[in-house]
Amino acid sequence: QVQLVESGGGLVQAGGSLRLSCAASGLTFSRYSMGWFRQAPGKEREFVAAISRSGGNTPYADSVKGRFTISRDNDRKMVYLQMNNLKPEDTAVYYCAADWTISSVLHIEINEYDYWGQGTQVTVSS
Q1: Which end of the chain is less packed: N or C, by CB atoms within 10 Å?
Q2: Residues 6+ apart with CB under 8 A from 11
Q3: pLDDT tens sequence across 40-78
């Protein structure tokens, strides 16, 4: 079965960095675009970043643009989220998700994604 397993979350001070990883199994990874989403306490899950199958297209939420970088390694079936200059408002559970797509099509809508990981907690202290 398909599994997405996130890791790399933790507690960090404002201005610090974290790198999230997502390991995929049970799917033809190169045929899926990948996304990172997050959900803060009491808020709805929101889009953070996505990456196309080849890695050539990487849209970001405005709130993280210039601070976060998404990347992928198709050989290792991994997707990453490098988070720099973290802010307290970045505190959330971060989820990795997979979306079967054609070519370079990318979605930022939650309901377009087929598979989800269990999430990893990121806490940024002020």
Answers
A1: N
A2: 123, 124, 125
A3: 999 999 999 999 999 999 999 999 999 999 999 999 999
Residue 86's Cβ-count burial label (10 Å; 0-12, 13-18, 19+) is buried
Neighbouring CB atoms inside 10 A of 34's CB total 29
Look-up: residue for tokens 């930022």?
108
Average pLDDT score over the chain? 96
Burial 103-116 (b: 16+ CB within 10 A, else e): eeebbbebebbebb
Q: What is the pLDDT of residue 98?
A: 98
Which is it for the CA torsion 83, 89, 92, 95, positive or negative? negative
